[in-house]
Hints:
The structure is a homodimer of 446-residue chains. The first copy, chain A, is an alpha/beta fold and 446 residues long. Chain A has 2 domains: 3-48 and 90-121 and 279-348, 3-Layer(bba) Sandwich (FAD/NAD(P)-binding domain); 125-275 and 361-444, 3-Layer(bba) Sandwich (FAD/NAD(P)-binding domain), CATH 3.50.50. Chain A is 32% helix and 25% strand. Chain A is built from 12 helices and 27 strands. Chain A has helices at 3-13, 27-35, 58-62, 75-78, 142-161, 165-171, 181-197, 227-239, 329-348, 384-398, 405-418, 437-444, and strands at residues 19-23, 42-47, 51-53, 72-74, 85-89, 92-96, 101-104, 109-112, 115-118, 122-125, 173-177, 211-215, 242-245, 250-254, 257-260, 263-266, 269-272, 275-278, 295-296, 302-303, 306-311, 316-317, 319-320, 323-324, 362-367, 370-375, 380-383. In chain A, helix 8 (227-239) links the parallel strand 12 (211-215) and strand 13 (242-245). Chain A is globular and about 75 Å long. Mean pLDDT of chain A is 87; it is low at 1-12 and 433-446. At the A-B interface, strand 4, strand 5, helix 5 and helix 11 of A face strand 5, helix 5 and helix 11 of B.
Amino acid sequence: MSPRIEQHAAAERRPRRPHVVIVGGGFAGLSAARRLRRAPVDVTVLDRTNHHLFQPLLYQVATAVLSPGDIVAPIRHLLRKQRNTTVLMAHVHEVDPERRVVVVDEERREIAYDFLILAAGARHSYFGHDEWEPYAPGLKSIDDAEEIRRRFLLAFEEAEKSEDAAEREALLTIVVVGAGPTGVELAGMLSTTAHDAMHADFRRIDTRRTRVVLLEGGPRVLPTFPEELSARAQRDLESLGVQVRTRSVVTRIEEDAVYVGEERIPTRNVFWGAGNAASPLARGLGAPLDRAGRVQVEPDLSVPGRPELFVVGDLAAVTQDGKPVPGVAPAATQEGGWAADNVVRTLRGEPRRPFVYRDKGDLATIGRHRAVGSFSRGRIRLTGRTAWWLWLGVHIMYLAGFRNRASVFIQWAYAYFTYGRGVRLITGETRRTLPPVEATQAIRGW
Amino acid sequence: MSPRIEQHAAAERRPRRPHVVIVGGGFAGLSAARRLRRAPVDVTVLDRTNHHLFQPLLYQVATAVLSPGDIVAPIRHLLRKQRNTTVLMAHVHEVDPERRVVVVDEERREIAYDFLILAAGARHSYFGHDEWEPYAPGLKSIDDAEEIRRRFLLAFEEAEKSEDAAEREALLTIVVVGAGPTGVELAGMLSTTAHDAMHADFRRIDTRRTRVVLLEGGPRVLPTFPEELSARAQRDLESLGVQVRTRSVVTRIEEDAVYVGEERIPTRNVFWGAGNAASPLARGLGAPLDRAGRVQVEPDLSVPGRPELFVVGDLAAVTQDGKPVPGVAPAATQEGGWAADNVVRTLRGEPRRPFVYRDKGDLATIGRHRAVGSFSRGRIRLTGRTAWWLWLGVHIMYLAGFRNRASVFIQWAYAYFTYGRGVRLITGETRRTLPPVEATQAIRGW
């Protein structure tokens, strides 16, 4: 029995309620689902994974500070008390806005919707150089974070065994591409871990000599922050031993080197924090897309000409007062909830409301006692210890709903007081070889 | 420069100290290394992974109670204060007792030893049916535990999506093969998790109807415990909803069924806890082996005719008063330390001491408030709550040296008071297809 038929069968048993399908269990999708808790609708949440991911802390899994389990929670568990909501782990291949169905899984089953809230997010963009992916993994999923952790830890193990000085140096050189918040946090934490936490454990190498290079194509780090904070972040990074190189565009990545123009930097560890590309699901909607492939939505967050189809989160290009709304967790949360509200208003026959973004400010952490924060559109600026403690507090608070809050708190406290070793676990196989084309698409497709 | 040459180069700089190589960073190997902390020797510890694993809690990772990071610690971190000890992550292919070298990694580098303590452990044995492995993963490593967790959790996700009653039933049937401690603990915890923790999260299936079948070829569960405790453990398992079937020999395993004689049990989840096979490294020693491939050692734990070569832990067949010493963590810890002591005695010109096993008793947990314990050779027997609380205390205590003790404690407390959800994280790819021959050997070979 296909889900379409089942939908009709359900209709026979009770007055049929509108079916809202939400694609994606990230901040935007989860927020939309929660807002529909008491609405007279049936909700189906579809996600490729079984878990909601607290993405702002993903770099701490990649750098072996936290366990993957600390920053995830099963989507179905978070929504367990919403009796009108069903969660299915499924791979969405395509949206057919004409027939109002989403097509899922290998069997290409169709799930019909009355309203669709598309929150399928983004993956990395290698700016047309997809052949770089196996050498320069990005950081979007738990699998990504485990891959980075594996390579980072294995590099030291290999270096400890190596008898070749040049090889050892390439192993102890880490290049992070892109100095947005992800790149900055990753570079700062990798440097801290290598320099402070692992030093005593090795006999033949000195992990304090690990070279972390942060490459940024633009003129400064953290380009969305005020210039003054960019400068402070760069100084903080440098004090942690990170070599920051702005206006440095990567021209080529190989298994054992990164090229900046003609310059070759020998390295066995390249991590990608540079570009985002929206989920390819956006392309099938017949809607206008921006340069990054995101859907340019109406003020009410729906797709032009498709009032029943909303796009939110990193997949949506939302502008406000002529400026783009940033691709951060609070924005995604607000958009998801707003789209759900507009669904409810529509059902009640009320007019929809145009989305209003409430900017709560921006925080990025660089390392122990080092962070920068910008609030009230840059009028309030914080740096150093104040910003760092605020960052800690905010993140502990937002882990609410995760039972892992206590676990994260203990692990951070331990790391703080001991400059401790974290979760230095190497498991599984590396993805260092180029996956077959089909698998690549599966990773790319949402 | 090969390690052999390097060894000689080191000899020129200072009076050459004997080189003790330890293969394996499990309980036996780690205990041997620690005992040599102040000995006038250079120690090299080789392990295929970077971490020591607290194996008695591995089933809790497989059943999504604990995170992998909670029960591991980097071997090099545990030994960081021992300046005479180097830890290398390396794959040991072979031991050449004639030339006194171990051969490691793809490059087949040779590491020379004066003393070798071989603690390479065991893998699963499928009793000549290696073709069952992809359908019935065992539980020895973190990767194994994550594979079992992935299959267990995916089965419920698939069942929630399935429209086919027979498929749903096969997905909600779990078969555990072998009723030793691993099989009993796994079956009990899988049943508890399915029945108590996940029930509210699903809409289309009732996880309380999950069928867990424990198959045992012999006449009773926990065959190494007194008969009375076996009977109690079986009753406890049954009260948790586990179907216990003794004298049930598995004759065939396919992707979607297990056969007991001619009977076919449709299931998509088979987990293997039945047999052990010693590491194939044992075969190259020219020493007498027992039926399971373990090395029959002398009373001082060395190999007959090779006083410089010790075998300890699950790789050794040790007998005491005509009875085999069991393959448990305390025995491995004692053997490793004992072998190291005999190395030190030999260097001092003192006679070696024959190994004396101190039996500290046996504990197995079945579920909440359900455990059995046997002490003083079965004269003291514990069951129910008493045994269960004792089990908890002992395991929290033995996690010492792991900073994860606090984290484990919190997660257990949380699970205890809330019948909570644990670490229900699905990541990575399943190993459900038969790996290529070479990879299989790599898994098998230590």
